[in-house]
Write a structure and sequence with these properties.
This protein is α/β, with parallel strands linked by helices and 276 residues long. Helices cover 45% and strands 11% of the residues. It has one domain (10-273): TIM Barrel. It holds the Pfam family AP_endonuc_2.
Length: 276
C-alpha cells in the first residue's frame, strides 16, 4: 500500500477490493500512525473480504536504536512496541522494515560493534513483546544511501544471530541487494536460514519485471531455500509527498493499478516458472 499512503484508512477500501480482484492474498501497510482504532477498522475490513495484512516500520533519528543516548533507544523500542500492538489490532503476523537503526541517519563512520550490540538489545526486547502478540519481526537491510548499519545480507544475518530470538528473523529485498550485493544467489543463500519475508521490488521502484533486476536468479535462488512465505510487491509513487520525498522518489513510474496488475502477473509467473 506504499503506492497509496503511509496511513491506510477506509478511504482506501475500494482500491483494496480491486487488489483482491486482481488476485492478491494480502496487503502490507506502514505502521507510523499511532491511532489504534484505525488499525482495528482496517483489520476488520480485510477480514471481511478474506485478505491478510502485514506491516512495515521505519524509525526516525529521535528513535534510533543504536543511539548512545539511552532515552533515544527507549523511544525506538517504544515505537516498535506500539507498531506491534497496532499490527496485532489489525490482525497481522509480520512487521518488516529498517527498524534496526534510524532511517537516513548517519554517523559518518562505518558501523561499530557497539552499535550492533545496542541494536540487538533493543530488538531482543522488541521480539519479546512481539512474541506475546504472535508477531514476527523481520528487519530489512537497506542500501548505503538510506542506512549504514545493515546494508548486506551478511550484516543482517549477523544482527539476527546476535538478537537470538525466534520472533526476530530476516528478509530479502532485491532493490537494495541490486546495489549492495555481489550476487543475488549468494545473498539469498546467506540469509536463507532466517529468511521469513521477501519484497519484490525493482531497481527503480517501479513495476517488477520492467527493470534490470536479475529476477530468474532471484526466484531460482529462493526456490533452493525451501522458502514458503510472502512475496510482497514494494513499489512507490508520489501520492504521499512526505513519504516520497523522504525516500527520494522524484517521479511517477506507472499508474498505480498498472503496477499492481502487471507486478502481480509477473510475480505469479516467476513463482510458477521456478516451482515455488
Amino acid at each position: 500500500m506504499h503506492l497509496w499512503s503511509t496511513n491506510v484508512t477506509s478511504e482506501h477500501f475500494a482500491d483494496i477490493e480491486k487488489l483482491k480482484e486482481i488476485g492478491y492474498d494480502g496487503i502490507e501497510i506502514f505502521l507510523a500512525e499511532p491511532e489504534r482504532a484505525n488499525y482495528e477498522e482496517v483489520g476488520a475490513f480485510l477480514k471481511s473480504i478474506d485478505l491478510e495484512v502485514n506491516g512495515c516500520l521505519g524509525l526516525g533519528a529521535e528513535q534510533n536504536p543504536i543511539s548512545e543516548d539511552a532515552a533515544v533507544r527507549q523511544a525506538g523500542l517504544d515505537k516498535i512496541k506500539e507498531a506491534i500492538d497496532n499490527m496485532h489490532a489489525a490482525g497481522g503476523k509480520n512487521i518488516c522494515g529498517p527498524f534496526h537503526s534510524a532511517f537516513a541517519t548517519f554517523s559518518r563512520n562505518s558501523p561499530q560493534e557497539e552499535e550492533y550490540k545496542r541494536s540487538a538489545e533493543v530488538l531482543h526486547a522488541a521480539a519479546e513483546h512481539a512474541a506475546q502478540a504472535g508477531i514476527t519481526l523481520t528487519p530489512e537491510a537497506l542500501n548505503r544511501f538510506e542506512c549504514y548499519l545493515v546494508n548486506t545480507m551478511a550484516q543482517l544475518k549477523k544482527l539476527v544471530d546476535m538478537v537470538d530470538h525466534p520472533n526476530l528473523r530476516g528478509m530479502f529485498d532485491p532493490h537494495h541487494a541490486n546495489i549492495e550485493e555481489k550476487s543475488f544467489a549468494d545473498a539469498i543463500e546467506t540469509i536463507a536460514p532466517v529468511m521469513t519475508h521477501v519484497h519484490i521490488s525493482e531497481n527503480d521502484r517501479g513495476t517488477p519485471g520492467s527493470g534490470n533486476v536479475a529476477w530468474d536468479e532471484v526466484f531460482g535462488s529462493i526456490a533452493k531455500t525451501g522458502y514458503d512465505g510472502w512475496y510482497y510487491i514494494e513499489a512507490f509513487s508520489r501520492d504521499d509527498l512526505d513519504f516520497a520525498n523522504a525516500i527520494n522518489v522524484w517521479r511517477e513510474f506507472n499508474p498505480r493499478m498498472d503496477i499492481c496488475r502487471d507486478g502481480y502477473a509477473f510475480t505469479k509467473a516467476m513463482i510458477e516458472k521456478h516451482a515455488l
